[in-house]
Amino acid sequence: MNYERNGADMMNQADFYQESGGSLALTIDGYLCRVPVGSTILEAAGTLGIDIPTLCYLKQLAPDGACRLCVVEVEGGRKGGLPAACTEKCTEGMKVWTLSPRVVEARRFVLDLLLSRHDFQCFKCGRNGSCKLQDYALAYGLTENMYAKGQGISAGLPDVSHPLFTFKPGLCVMCRRCTRVCEKLQGRDVISISRRGASTRMSPAFGLPWAESDCESCGNCVSYCPTGALTSRDNTKSFRAWEVERVRTTCPHCGTGCQYDLLVKQNRLVGVEPADGPANGGLLCVKGKFGSYKFVHSPERLRQPLIRREGILEPASWDEALDLVADRFRHLIAEHGSDAVAGFSCARATNEDNYVFQKMVRAVFGTNNVDNCARVCHSASVHGLSMTLGSGAMTNSIRDITREADVILLIGSNPTEAHPVVGAQIRQALLRGAKLIVVDPRKIDLTKQATVHLQIRPGTNVAFANGMMHVILREGLADREFIEKRTEGFEEVERLVAAYTPERVAEICRIDPEDLRQAAILYAQAERAPIIYCLGVTEHSSGTEGVMSLSNIAMLVGKIGKPGCGVNPLRGQNNVQGACDMGALPYDFPGYQKVANPDVREKFARAWGVPMRDKIGLTATQVIPAAREGLIKGLYIFGEDPMVTDPDTAHVREALEGLEFLVVQELFLTETAALADVVLPGVSYAEKEGTFVNTERRVQRVRRAVTLDGDMKQDYEIICEIMTRMGYPCRYESAAAIMDEIASVVPIYGGISHERLDAAGAAGLQWPCPDPAHRGTSFLHEERFSRGLGLFYPAEYREAKEMPDGLYPLTMVTGRMLYHYNARAMTGRTEGINALANTSYIEMNAGDALLLGVGDGDRVVVASRRGEIETTARVGDVVSPGEVFMTFHFPDGNVNKLTNPALDEIAWIPEYKVCAVRVTPA
């Protein structure tokens, strides 16, 4: 929208718009403006910087017109009428007055009515100073209420049942923001209007206390409440609006990359408010809203280096610790060779930290034995999509695949729990009329809204994909032109899938063949249909082939290289994409430039000043067994906790305890750090500058909000100090300087800098972004694949490495839950989240539980060939007979004591998703 307050200029603009079409001119308070046809008066006023008061308006949704505070006067309008600016559409030549005497009096009347049932407690209210009702009452001169006369009308008692927020109906103005956010944006529809007349109030369904409702605790209703009716428990006592500074940053949890503001009071984080970022659209989940700041100030934070002396970790100076690390690694390399040491980088740290870490391993340690935790989650995506498409990343954007889709094929992903803001946007798509196909062994939340749910047997993704292609080909729905012009290898795949009839696939996957046919036809016939997947596809011994089979499906129908389509892995951690981008991989330099390529090695040798090794390094899942065998002597672990996250914990412990030297750089004394010879204290995302890359390849800023007391150092500075002590002088003035070096050696980052990202605001930049003039790339492979032609890969179905038998008759699947993130280093230090979920559990089918004599809530022992744990049974129909499900978050039942370390032979990713177990009453 454009405006000019000069009439002649406005006429010139009017001529232009009339020629181009689609706009109209009007005046507001005497000022001319031109806006697109269909604009409301409220939107038009915004282009002029004219503020019209609103309580109910949300720019993400169609106007509601509930509060009636935004009334304006339109000359020649409906007789006596004062239309609501949020709903009234602009017309050509309209004259609008926003502060006429009639308008001001009408707004005072509305405010007076709202205040008549308001519980006046401004000095105690957590929104004092940031309450829109308070602001408007003061602006319109309402110092007392003419209706209540001190009596007031009771709206009901406060609801303090929820551990994360409170609801005070006496402060509610019935604007309906909370219910609209919950229904239309979160897609949950928990909140509604209850009762009648003067007793009307907002409440969860059936008038239940908030803690007993189906609330997902996302806190979006709290964020959008214009008064103090819904308030975070932390906000009610700890600060007032005028006391806090807002620092825009990126969420440190999953790979969605939500933008939000950290609220800082006196160098302490006191809350989080969502920002309207491209990936989150103003939404957050429970982890982002409530679990992203308390851990920063935890008394359990490491605040000085620790050195193991006589078996005990004791405080040490930085010089002692860094000299010891440098000396020991230098000695190990001299005695055993460079390949006797390795480093694990951190998928939660910034790009800048990861870049410097892998540079240390390669340029100073002299080995390519560097990896990150993508190895145990999405290495199959990196390998699989690189092989078939040429780029191992999400092809499209989050907003694109949720707003543009006609049909969504969701496989091996539970986004409403693992990526809740993406899950909310999928729900929005369904509300707009999109259809959903869910392929998952469990009845995840989204199956309630799915057109088809294929509840396949764990480990049968490849058979399912081949069956989809069989049906598409038989129905004549393949895009033959796309296949001929843009792909290779199709004929072999066509021959292979001919044997995967719906009946055969139904027998393998234990599904109805008609459901398979319906799903294939629905996906193939849709104009725009993205494939969205997650760890349910990758964490298998056939995970890479599962990924390539999905790209086969997309290429078969030409649904790649265009909006609303593509193959889209949801990355698990906040910067697992960035850690891979930065070269924390044993076979890739930064930017996926291949170690095996002599020109690439020469390039980095020139950039870093030392020769580069040509030997491909070991993956993280190869380093652990190599350490058990005595081949790896020294290991530097930066920000990872393999004692909790890796499969077969007993063997991981044996490997780490057998090392000659173990260094861990961490925030907390994790189970892995407790085994270290040296522990180095780093800083959290809220204490550093840098960048994260979200699942859609979007590079976004991370900004320092606080500086904590203690003897911690910036993570990249620690690494640089070690490099310098080992004879390779290394120093950077700032994280921005590191990004400048990244841009100089990584072509897909060539146009990215902190300065440019700051100028872009919350939008960030999506790679590839090869030069400073490039705007970034919203979706890949539009005109050609990164590898030239897309490759059809023929993948035969193979059973999982460990199948159930008489001794271990149940198949266990692992995954995440809504309230916690990975090893709970962040969420586990938030009291309110722990009140919602704090113990392990196992989901069982009711039929299996009956046979075993197990009831809902009973304690059970779960055993595999590698160990046993005790946990609590949740009995129902979420899983099929013969299958069970556990999360990996809780120390009282760490499922990785049971999981199978069997590996995919291409990406070396563990098979977390299939493990044979038995369950017995405790």
Q: Could you explain how this protein is built, in words?
A:
Helix content is 31%, strand content 18%. The longest helix has 19 residues. 56% of the residues are buried. Strands 14-13-27-26-25-15-16 form a seven-stranded mixed sheet, with helices on both faces. It has a six-stranded mixed β-barrel with strand order 32-36-33-35-34-39. A five-stranded mixed sheet has the order 1-3-2-5-4, sandwiched between helices. It folds into five domains: 92 residues, Ubiquitin-like (UB roll), CATH 3.10.20; 160 residues, Alpha-Beta Plaits (2-Layer Sandwich); 230 residues, Rossmann fold (3-Layer(aba) Sandwich), CATH 3.40.50.740; 191 residues, Dimethylsulfoxide Reductase, domain 2; 112 residues, Barwin-like endoglucanases (Beta Barrel), CATH 2.40.40.20.
Quick synopsis:
The chain is of the alpha/beta class and 922 residues long.
CATH architecture of the largest domain: 3-Layer(aba) Sandwich
Give start-end ranges of low-pLDDT stretches: 1-20
* Overall geometric form: globular
- Round the mean pLDDT to the nearest integer and report it: 93
User: What does the radius of gyration come to?
Assistant: 29 Å
Content of β-strand: 15-25%
Helicity range of the residues?
Answer: 25-40%
**Assembly level:** single chain
Write down how many β-strands occur, each being a DSSP E stretch of 2 or more residues: 39
Structural class: alpha/beta
CATH domain topology of the largest domain: Rossmann fold
DSSP summary: helix tally: 31
Straight-line distance between termini: 67 Å
Largest sheet: spatial strand order: 14-13-27-26-25-15-16
What's the story with the biggest beta sheet? 7 strands, mixed
Overall number of structural domains: 5
What is the CATH C-level name of the largest domain? Alpha Beta
